[in-house]
Design a protein that fits this description.
43% helix; globular
């Protein structure tokens, strides 16, 4: 039996987790002196304008977190959440309440006033996506980029940014209403079957095989700090002791490793805490200061960033030389990867599959009780990308897993046999390096 609940329950639980993060940042914004404001003045017969926010850092965090509710391709897009609530709990949401909420959504999408630019009506919803896709979250829409460039030296540029902020605030209010409905239906006995989790009543930890202690935590198989919102083990599968002690430390070791830290800063929109990511090396700091802006700060006398060429389209090719902070520890990284691998077995094949005694050596390795009699392959040449994926490879025998994190590929066997061994020539041909998981 797979440890995956029904799609609606998965979506609403993910919505619940993310809403708490957004609410926390919103509360901090509301407790800071100042408001979101659009100001304009006439100076020498020219109209000048500016936008002020309560706090720049917290504002960015709020906008970045709200992106999941406002991005049409995200699973947590507000329309998906709203449709799930209506479809699964029709008796709990009266028709007049549905009409009221949909009227509110329509009103926010239209905005407080209509803007007409070059005979084109631009509603609040259009403004949000123009700013989001044309600048704020990266320049991904050519039409939006061109439209913003046209407005660059006009008061409309700042007005669009102000409306972008207002749109986020408006839909946080919508998200709060949807969250209240979620809480109501979860308490409703008519829908107890919808939220029932068998794993919460059948408790045994896949990492230590203990059925004692508390099981109050969900477990992100791939660290949440790497953007995993989907592969999550429900309560009852991992004990709190393992989750809060050994596993959290392994997650941190992987996420903050010199291998992953830079790529995480490039591709992660925010950290587990909702902050913009950054990476620290001996000679350089790499910080995401806005969702689409990264700053390199040199910490040594020798330049860490070298510009190789400047293209006609304005792009720059450059090389970054980063010196790691500590000696690479393949055993520690291996334990973090084996934790992911065993979690994936439970997620896709059920907890009983993960309890199999053939994984006992992997369990002890994950918990740091002893080394593991096998090898870990890591790609030493890679083309970075924004995705994380895992898959099982049955060609080698055993339980071989491939974990691809932003283009760095790890290959390992959750069982002690067969031992993964290839020649140096074969490793070089495939652009891999081999590391023993035995300390001696």
């Amino acid at each position: 039996m797979q440890l995956q609940n029904n799609p609606g329950q998965i979506l609403l639980n993910a919505f619940r987790r993310h809403y708490y993060k957004v609410k926390d940042v919103n509360n901090r914004l509301m407790n800071i002196d100042g408001t979101f404001s659009y100001q304009y003045t006439f100076n020498q017969e020219r109209l000048q304008s500016k936008v002020e926010v309560p706090n720049e850092e917290e504002t960015i965090r709020f906008m970045v977190l709200m992106r999941r509710f406002l991005n049409p391709v995200d699973r947590l897009y507000y329309k998906n959440v709203w449709s799930t609530l209506k479809e699964n709990f029709p008796e709990a949401i009266p028709s007049d309440r549905v009409s009221e909420i949909e009227g509110l959504i329509e009103e926010i999408n239209k905005g407080p006033f209509k803007i007409n630019i070059d005979q084109r009506d631009v509603a609040a919803e259009n403004i949000y996506h123009i700013v989001a896709n044309g600048e704020y979250f990266g320049k991904s829409d050519e039409q939006a980029i061109a439209f913003l460039q046209m407005l660059e030296n006009t008061p409309f540029g700042h007005l669009f940014l102000y409306e972008f902020y207002n749109y986020n605030l408006g839909f946080f209010y919508v998200a709060s209403i949807l969250f209240d409905i979620f809480l109501e239906v979860k308490k409703d006995e008519r829908y107890s079957h919808f939220f029932y989790e068998e794993s919460a009543t059948n408790k045994c930890c896949i990492y230590c095989l203990s059925d004692n202690g508390t099981f109050t935590s969900e477990e992100h198989i791939v660290p949440e700090s790497l953007g995993n919102y989907d592969t999550i083990l429900p309560k009852g599968v991992v004990c709190d002791k393992c989750n809060n002690e050994v596993l959290s430390g392994l997650d941190a070791a992987l996420v903050e490793s010199d291998l992953i830290s830079f790529l995480k800063t490039l591709y992660m929109p925010y950290t587990k805490e909702g902050k913009l990511p950054q990476a620290e090396y001996q000679n350089v700091s790499i910080k995401k200061v806005r969702p689409s802006h990264i700053v390199f700060i040199n910490k040594s006398k020798k330049e860490s960033v070298t510009v190789n060429s400047r293209e006609e389209n304005g792009s720059i090719r450059f090389t970054v030389n980063m010196k790691g902070r500590k000696k690479f520890d393949p055993i520690l990284i291996g334990r973090a990867l084996y934790k992911i691998g065993l979690g994936m077995i439970a997620f896709f094949f059920g907890r009983d599959a993960a309890y199999d005694s053939k994984y006992d050596a992997a369990r002890a390795f994950i918990r740091g009780e002893h080394d593991f009699s096998n090898n870990l392959f890591i790609s030493d040449t890679t083309k970075p990308h924004s995705q994380i994926s895992t898959r099982m490879d049955i060609r080698w025998g055993g339980t071989c897993m491939q974990v691809d994190i932003y283009g760095v590929v790890f290959f390992f066997n959750l069982e002690t046999t067969p031992v993964l061994e290839v020649t140096e020539e074969q490793l070089k041909e495939r652009n891999y390096a081999s590391y023993s998981l035995r300390s001696t």
